[in-house]
Design brief:
Radius of gyration: 27 Å
Helix content: 55-70%
Shape: flat
Strand content: under 5%
Order of helices and strands: HHHH
Number of helices: 4
């Protein structure tokens, strides 16, 4: 029992030392102004590199993530179908798809899917 605790503490100590050494050795010595500035083919930048991000891109990203998670949830439902009660599975599937369709309708109704604005 004592040897297991000793080995665990030794592994913890070695891991901590390695992480501290990696942190110390990976730090940059100097912060160079040229290296921290934006690079545009050797020319000086004409405008600020910190322009505000378009909200349209953010909304499209959120919509993609929602429907990506939807696929990750629907695929196991198909596999589970033969192992579960068919009535409960059908009700759960219909409710899940209805929630997604209501969300899609809401996004369409709010104009989030129109890119032309």
């Amino acid at each position: 029992m004592f040897s297991i605790i000793f080995i665990a503490l030794l592994i913890l100590l070695i891991t901590t030392i390695v992480m501290i050494l990696a942190s110390i050795l990976s730090k940059k010595a100097l912060i160079d102004r040229e290296k921290s500035s934006p690079f545009e083919c050797g020319f000086d930048p004409k405008s600020s590199s910190r322009l505000p991000f378009s909200l349209r891109f953010f909304l499209i990203t959120i919509i993609f993530l929602i429907f990506d998670v939807e696929i990750a949830l629907i695929l196991p439902m198909i596999i589970i179908m033969k192992y579960s009660n068919i009535m409960i599975w059908t009700i759960t599937s219909i409710i899940f798809i209805l929630i997604l369709l209501i969300g899609l309708y809401h996004e369409w109704n709010q104009g989030m899917l129109n890119w032309s604005n």
